[in-house]
Design brief:
31% strand; globular; disordered N terminus
Length: 152
């Protein structure tokens, strides 16, 4: 009887742990990505959790019109509600595609694109701008993202 109780406890624990947070009502996330005012086709976009909240990263790709929709684990649509760093890139040396996106937007360590995904439908239009040579990159205040907080 003790063995059956122990096995039941282990199974229930595994079910609870594996289900925590990941199937919480995701927010649908979509939008359009532009670079210097033009739609950015064939780009990859990633929403990476800003903290260790247990949320999964979500990914998507743009069509010819620069439109994207996010997916996460097992091709589920959307993203778990929370705060995310956003990265975008187009390059793929294996496929002969050049990188068009400025370097600052391609890494979670350097991007200043941050968004808060909520339950329901979220539309985040991402307006990337190529900074002039030798200048500071512009702030992304024109889009629906906020600049990540600066360390104090």
């Amino acid at each position: 009887m003790r063995t059956l109780t122990a096995i039941t406890f282990i199974i229930v624990t595994i079910i609870i742990i594996s289900g925590c947070g990941q199937d919480a009502a995701p927010g649908k996330v979509k939008g359009t990505i532009t670079l210097d005012g033009e739609p950015l086709p064939n780009a990859s976009v990633a929403f990476c959790p800003e903290s260790n909240s247990g949320a999964l990263s979500s990914f998507g790709g743009t069509n010819a019109s620069g439109q994207y929709e996010l997916f996460y684990a097992n091709k589920k649509t959307g993203a778990i509600p929370g705060r995310y760093k956003v990265t975008v890139h187009t390059g793929n040396a294996d496929m002969g595609r050049a990188e068009l996106v400025p370097a600052m937007y391609r890494s979670p360590d350097t991007t200043d694109l941050v968004c808060d995904v909520k339950k329901g439908t979220n539309t985040f239009d991402i307006q990337l701008v190529t900074p002039p040579a030798g200048s500071e990159p512009p702030q992304p205040s024109r889009n629906k993202f906020s600049k990540k907080p600066s360390p104090r």
